[in-house]
């Protein structure tokens, strides 16, 4: 018989029990003018990072490339557009749109007149390690 699962740093994670983490509809209906990260996955021992982000109407995430991580993006409220370096026109985003952002791809996100709220999920980045100077 094996012992409890351990995190990379040898600690026991929180109980590995499936559970509801948040209600994105309720989360995005509060303070519709609020912008930024509305929710973040913080459970210890997790292998994923996830965030619910809201962009104010007309605001955008500037074009950038993520060199290491694939990202899934799910639009949960509002509207907007996805820009890429391979499409001549931005692709419309609306609630329910599930978008794959492959690592290495250039992308931008622009909120429409209602603002835009979306969930992102990707593999957890390893934590910074502090070591001795050599």
From TrEMBL:
This is Cupin domain-containing protein. Residues 1-10 have a biased composition (Basic and acidic residues). It comes from the Bacteria. It comes from Streptomyces spinosisporus. Gene3D superfamilies: Jelly Rolls. Residues 1-20 are annotated as: Disordered. Transmembrane segments: none annotated.
């Amino acid at each position: 018989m094996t012992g409890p699962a351990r995190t990379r740093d040898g600690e026991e994670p929180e109980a590995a029990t499936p559970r509801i983490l948040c209600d994105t509809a309720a989360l995005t209906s509060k303070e519709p003018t609020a912008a930024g990260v509305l929710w973040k996955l913080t459970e210890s021992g997790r292998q994923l990072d996830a965030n619910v982000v809201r962009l104010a109407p007309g605001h955008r995430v500037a074009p950038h490339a993520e060199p290491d991580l694939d990202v899934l993006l799910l639009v949960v409220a509002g509207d907007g557009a996805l820009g890429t370096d391979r499409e001549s026109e931005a692709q419309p985003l609306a609630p329910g749109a599930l978008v794959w952002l492959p690592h290495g791809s250039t992308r931008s996100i622009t909120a429409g007149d209602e603002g835009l709220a979306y969930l992102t999920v990707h593999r957890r980045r390893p934590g910074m390690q502090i070591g001795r100077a050599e």
